[in-house]
Here is the input.
Amino acid sequence: MNFKYIAGAVALLGAVGGVGAQETVVKIGHSGPLSGPQAFSGKDNENGVRMAIEELNAKPITVAGKKLKFELLSEDDQGDPKAGMAAAQKMIDSGVKYVIGPYNSGVAIPASRAYNDAGVLVATVASNPKVTQHGYKGLFRVNASDTQLGSRMALYAANELKLKTVAVIDDRTAFGQGLAEEFKKQARDSGMQVAGHEFTTDKAFDFSSILTKLKTRKVEAIFFGGYAPQGAPMARQMKQLGINAKLLGGDTICTVEMAKLGGDAVGDNVLCSQGGAILDKVANGPAFKARYKERFKQDADVYAAAYYDATMMFAQAMQKTSSTDPVRVGPAVANGKYAGVAGTYSFDHRGDMQQSPVTVFTFKNGQPTALSSY
Here is the structure.
């Protein structure tokens, strides 16, 4: 279902509710890193939810004879598991039954249990395979998993870049470690030699000793399982040390922030994999990007569209079931299909997307630039 169709359906349902129909407030929670080095991603994600809510409230849905009024409750989980649990409990105590997030796998894995126990429906982009392995019926991954992101990057490196020798660095977070392991597995299956696997943290900024070690092994690429605040200085230090290898990574370095922090060290030497189709090449992508920029005075980053889609997906399921009760809405999401901006969302028995395209990007003029869907 495209956005114009949604707008028409929303307008029609609003008319059916009649003038003076009572309102039902639906709280939509958002959990993400709104402070700290990953705040640029957290705010971008939050903006996606906010824009969807504003559009839904502008043309209200009517369910069971009452107009729905959506309210955003956004919590800063700091990208930290402990803070994420506190954010989850705060939203649960506030009566939130729908959450978009968490962004980080390390937050999503423990928080998902609390949300499940409270009967909360969750749509997350957290990509570690463990996120959906508990089998929680109300948990939906609206993005590619590490298995897809890591393996597709390895396939691209082997088949398109024709690389023979690579190395891996991960930041020991649930996300970074999972992504790196999937890349390493597929790299070996594709005939590449993995000449080393080094470890750092998501707080580190000096990678010179690790990079010096890998330089001696003459690797053609280094795959980094981690986030842009570490990926950017890593790229800078690779350049300073005269390492001509490419820097590869997942979705968390497919961001404008990577280029801002990395400067002239981030160009066509950096490649990354991101879940979802190329927005410029899908039907409603350009219109979404234009509305986002008009509303927030900046370009949409990696997952704004997915967070927007997740919010709209829950709203559509409320329309379909004539209910705001997660007990009824959850099965409608699990068994249904939603055509959003960034892709079509339908889920398997684990809550993973049945089909999730992965796009490989590089950087040109400080912007992530799509190469191909893979």
Remarks:
- The first strand starts at residue 23 and ends at 32.
- The chain has two domains: 3-144+280-342, 147-275+359-373.
- The CA atoms of residues 101 and 124 lie 4 Å apart.
